[in-house]
Write a structure and sequence with these properties.
Elements lengths: L1 H29 L4 H12 L11 H4 L1 H17 L10 H25 L12 H16 L3 H11 L4 H33 L5 H30 L4 H30 L7 H15 L3 H26 L2 H33 L3 H6 L9 H13 L4 H29 L17 E5 L3 H12 L3 E6 L13 E4 L5 H6 L7 E4 L3 H14 L4 E5 L6 H5 L4 E3 L1 H14 L1 H7 L6 E7 L20 E7 L2 E3 L12 E7 H11 L2
Parallel strand pairs: 1-2, 1-4, 2-3, 4-5, 5-6
Antiparallel strand pairs: 7-10, 8-9, 8-10
Helix pairs in contact: 1-2, 1-12, 2-12, 4-10, 4-11, 4-12, 4-15, 5-6, 5-8, 5-13, 6-8, 6-15, 7-8, 7-16, 9-10, 9-11, 13-16, 15-16, 21-22
């Protein structure tokens, strides 16, 4: 009873630290560092060596959190291994994986073995134990971080053969690393125990792997059953995590039972079982999309717990001693990865540039590497803690160095699709409306009434421009970037897209990447395409819900709705940007606004800020104001250059 009470108290304290870690780690993101690095550092500071918020033995007392997290990491790693999406770059992925896995593993193992006398906890080991540690550490060196890779790719909106190859190798490597670790872990246990390699040992190893593969198939089918049942998604997530934890419980039971009954520990491979189960579900069931959604929603919570707990379990005194060793091991990993990349790229026949920079996407490490290190720490308590601390130090260095290198590589091959710089405001508010129909004509006329220069773009040759003498219109052959630039699309403050979703998306991507127009307004046709436009920071109008939302606002807040819609006589709203340098630093209370003007909000660098009379203006701030048309025009002139 006391044991359960202590665990509950420990869990409560850890929960408070984890919640705080989530908030504090966001500051690391602002410094362009991975949030994982922040969680590790906060866990380290919260541990028994600095602020002592968590006592010694926290990782042991909360081992179940570690087990659940490791199962989840295995699920997530295999969920990215979708074979159908890798076929186009299979040759490059195959040979680069061979280069990274084979060369890095072999050369790292050899170098670590010969450097054993310079690594504190390996000095007094016999040769067999040194080999065991070397192959375990080399296996972890091969591991990569799919989550970190995806984060960089999403940030740069990168797309192309190089990114496709990098992501494919990353996912396949993490899959194979867990297989390799299962074999090396069993061999290491035999080497360290001093038992000879016999036919019996080989039979047990093959049997363990075969049973693990079989149980992986069972887990895949159980995951399918869970996802096929109609219930709340949070409940499904709980069952998935519970299934992953039950794999670890089964492994503990089999180990103890086999040792008690036969005097031999039969060791299943929980990580291997989970990764096989996830692979089967991802590639051979209809639940892949739902599974990925659940993993994305649960992932942040699991990672916060896992990385914070890992940081808290690191011995700070040992970490300080091992920083020099960690730097050497980091260099070994980097050099062997470069060699592996050149070998793999050459065998695949990749372009020279790919061979030179092919190693850059694979530097960053995270969940899988830390997970495998924690397995070693738990299995070999005599030196496992120092082993884990060394690996954590190397991974932290990789977290600092890896993401910038991957970004640099993507930019070098020209596959980054970041937003172009927004053109400077020329003093005239221009809106380009792409598409010709009754609504676009009405929109152009309404914008002109509000002081905008509205221009219509169409490729419909049957339109008679003479029927619309009050509008400026352009007939284009197509809506390519060259055609759009020919009509000075770069001077627009807003572009409105009213074509099909695919046409709108092509235009939005071209404007986002090459023009940088401040506001891209899209009329959506199918709800399924919402996310594609959202990633481009588009302002999306969904006709299927817009009318309902409009009537809802008119019922609940008629005054505000009619005001925003311009339905009140001589009243309107306007966004005004601070372009006049004389207003910089001026508090809102000193603006001397007309009596009928009200400031609704202030938007600063894309964020709406809470304002008061003493809020000081900055250049580029956008103020949303409401008032009479005459007063709004007066204010617009005052805020302009």
């Amino acid at each position: 009873m006391d044991q359960y009470l202590n665990t509950l108290v420990l869990l409560g304290g850890f929960a408070i630290v984890a919640v705080a870690a989530k908030q504090i780690a966001t500051f690391f993101q602002k410094a362009k560092l991975p949030i994982i690095t922040g969680l590790l550092v906060i866990g380290l500071f919260s541990g028994p060596y600095l602020f002592k918020l968590l006592p010694k033995g926290t990782s042991t007392g909360l081992q179940f959190i570690n087990d659940i997290s490791l199962a989840f990491i295995a699920f997530a790693a295999a969920a990215e291994l979708y074979v159908k999406e890798m076929r186009s770059r299979f040759k490059s992925i195959k040979w680069m994986t061979f280069g990274q896995l084979g060369v890095t593993f072999i050369f790292s193992s050899i170098l670590i073995f010969f450097l054993a006398d310079y690594i504190g906890f390996m000095k007094e080991m016999n040769s067999a134990s040194k080999i065991a540690v070397a192959i375990l550490m080399a296996t972890i060196f091969v591991a990569r971080s799919p989550a970190s890779a995806i984060a960089v790719i999403n940030e740069l909106r990168a797309k192309g053969p190089f990114v496709q190859m990098a992501m494919g190798v990353t996912v396949v490597k993490d899959f194979l690393v867990i297989l390799l670790f299962a074999v090396c872990f069993t061999i290491s246990q035999t080497l360290i125990s001093g038992e000879p390699f016999t036919i019996t040992f080989l039979g047990i190893l093959i049997g363990e792997l075969a049973v693990s593969f079989g149980l992986g198939w069972v887990v895949g089918k159980l995951l399918s059953v869970i996802l096929s049942i109609r219930m709340h998604q949070n409940l499904k997530a709980a069952f998935i995590l519970g299934l992953g934890y039950s794999v670890y419980l089964l492994n503990y039971f089999v180990e103890h039972y086999s040792y008690d009954q036969f005097g031999v520990k039969i060791h299943l491979e929980p990580l291997l079982i989970c990764i096989i189960g996830s692979f089967i579900l991802t590639n051979y069931s209809r639940f892949r999309a739902e599974f990925l959604t659940i993993l994305e929603e649960v992932g942040p919570i699991v990672y916060i717990c896992f990385f914070t707990l890992t940081g808290a379990s690191v011995s700070l005194d040992v970490l300080v001693k091992l920083l020099g060793v960690a730097a050497i091991l980091f260099s070994i990993r980097l050099v062997t990865m470069i060699v592996g990349s050149v070998v793999g790229g050459t065998l695949a026949g990749d372009p020279p540039l790919y061979r030179k920079i092919g190693w850059m996407p694979f530097v960053t490490q995270a969940g899988v590497g830390l997970g495998l290190a924690s397995v070693v720490a738990n299995a070999f308590p005599e030196w496992g803690n120092e082993f884990q601390t060394t690996v954590v130090a190397v991974i932290v260095i990789n977290q600092f160095v890896g993401p910038p290198l991957f970004k640099w590589a993507i930019n070098m091959v020209g596959e980054a699709r970041t937003r172009a710089v927004t053109p400077h405001f020329d003093g005239v508010r221009d809106a380009y409306i792409i598409g010709f129909e009754t609504q676009t004509v009405a929109l152009a006329r309404q914008l002109k009434e509000h002081g905008w220069e509205a221009e219509l773009l169409t490729n419909n040759k049957e339109v008679n421009f003479d029927e619309f003498p009050d509008l400026k219109m352009h007939l284009l052959e197509d809506f390519s970037l060259e055609s759009l630039k020919a009509v000075d699309i770069q001077k627009a403050e807003a572009v409105v897209l009213t074509l099909t979703d695919q046409e709108n998306l092509n235009i939005a991507e071209a404007i986002y990447e090459h023009v940088g127009t401040k506001d891209i307004v899209v009329r959506l046709n199918k709800r399924d395409n919402f996310e594609s436009f959202h990633k481009l920071d588009c302002l999306i109008v969904d006709p299927s819900t817009a009318m309902v939302s409009l009537m809802d606002h008119l019922v609940r807040s008629p005054q505000a709705a009619t005001l925003l819609l311009g339905m009140q006589e001589d009243q309107d709203t306007m966004d005004v940007e601070v372009l006049n340098s004389d207003l910089r630093g001026l508090p809102l209370r000193d603006l001397r606004l007309p009596s009928d003007i009200i400031i609704l909000s202030v938007n600063r660098k894309g964020q709406t800020i809470i304002t008061h009379g003493y809020t000081r203006l900055r250049m580029g701030d956008v103020l949303t104001m409401v008032g009479s048309n005459d007063s709004l025009q007066e204010i617009a002139l005052r805020f302009d250059r």
